Amino acid sequence: MVAAANGFSIRPAEVQTGSTMDFRLGLVPVLAAASAFAGAAAADPSGPAQRSAPTVAPRIFLHDPAVLVRRKERWRANPRAEPAVANLLTEADRALDEKPFSIVDKDVLPQSGDKHDYLSLAPYAWPDPRKPNGLPYVMRDGKISPERDTIPDHRKLARICSLGEILGLAYFFSGDEKYAAHATALLRTFFIAAATRMNPNLNFAQGVRGKESGRAAGIVDAAGIVHLVDGASFLVPSDSWTKADAGALHAWLAAYLTWLQKSDLGRKEGRANNNHGTWYDVQVVSLALATGQTELATETLSFARKRRIGRQIEPDGQQPEELRRTRPWHYASFNLQAMVLLANLGARAGVDLWHYQTPDGRCIPKAVAWLLPFAAGKSPWVLPDLDGMKAAELWPIVREAALALPNPDLAKAAAQIDVAPDPRLALYLD
């Protein structure tokens, strides 16, 4: 083991407000009936002997649970009519082969010296060719350094969030305990077991060698946590997922939410006026809803009307902060994806972002409409772009908007985008 990541600043760790987790935040919600992970729904016996039992709606936040209930009922009646479910179960069966993993298994330690702390490198940071040792690293926007993958934590965090959703959904549809049992084993290892759990902070995310050990921008590494939140909710009826497991994950999420709100890095990310700020809000709202902090969720969503939609979208639908990047199509789509999820969360919390519009016309539908002609092949994408236009990045956004607004013209437009539909997202869309 190396005591600190090579090239990181070795100055004493910065004192951050709220950097010591206040676990008291998680105690009351863990015991409350409002918990998303313990006692939120009754068991849903969907085994072969009880096919006629009504489906209990899961307590999820990113999408309308009623859509999943309808799809499950259709699948029960005629499995061949729901190929998206078959695709999910195939994906979940492959996931059963993945053994539990942890971020403690890395060869480089963060500045804290604690292997339980998440560690990643800024993707666009490269050695400075003008310096003999390359330090400090310099930023080359849009050009991903292969060195990023030498530390595996970012891939592991993304994967556990994805697996939580895949296996949770598979258990919801099939009722097969093998999916819930494996999800439980994975989540216990990554978030709960003392020897292998990740600490609930991102103090050392997206560091830049020779300059800073962690950056506010690194918080976007955990964007997938919102899918894990919903994925864990599907496990509630399972015998494998105990109340102790649910309570421990709940406490972890609550502690991470506290860190987002009170750490210097979290506060800085919350002030970002681009996709980083939007994804920050998505995390905060999802975690607040999951941990029973409804007032925080609605307050964040209400502020997002002006802070995100009003500041980041122009009256004609352009997103200038994203379009000035070296990968403008990716970042405009990425930010809009976050706004879509934020609007979906608002629908669960009673704050309408889908139909919100500023007096001069800034709104989410206009941002979708501005990008759509390029993805549909009706207008050429002429902005300088390292990646070029990738229609697949916009397809899920258009489909979500078509369902939420609702807008049949958008549904037709999505069908005209020549890409393979996202099979997992298709589960959530009627």
Task: Report the CATH architecture of the largest domain.
Answer: Alpha/alpha barrel
Order of strands side by side in the largest beta sheet?
1-4
Summarize the amount of helix as a percent range.
Answer: 40-55%
How many beta-strand runs? 4
Whole-angstrom Rg: 22 Å
**What is the beta-strand fraction?**
under 5%
Residue ranges: pLDDT <50 for 5 or more in a row?
1-35, 39-51
Sheet with most strands: 2 strands, parallel
Question: What is the mean pLDDT?
Answer: 89
Within CATH, the superfamily of the largest domain carries the name Chondroitin AC/alginate lyase
Describe the model:
By secondary structure, the chain is mostly helical. The protein has a two-stranded parallel sheet. It contains 15 helices and 4 strands. It has helices spanning 24-31, 65-77, 83-95, 153-174, 177-192, 225-233, 243-262, 264-270, 275-290, 294-312, 320-323, 328-349, 364-375, 395-404, 408-416, and strands spanning 119-121, 125-126, 138-139, 204-207. The protein has 2 domains: 1-7 and 35-41 and 61-269, Glycosyltransferase (Alpha/alpha barrel), CATH 1.50.10.100; 293-430, Chondroitin AC/alginate lyase (Glycosyltransferase, Alpha/alpha barrel).
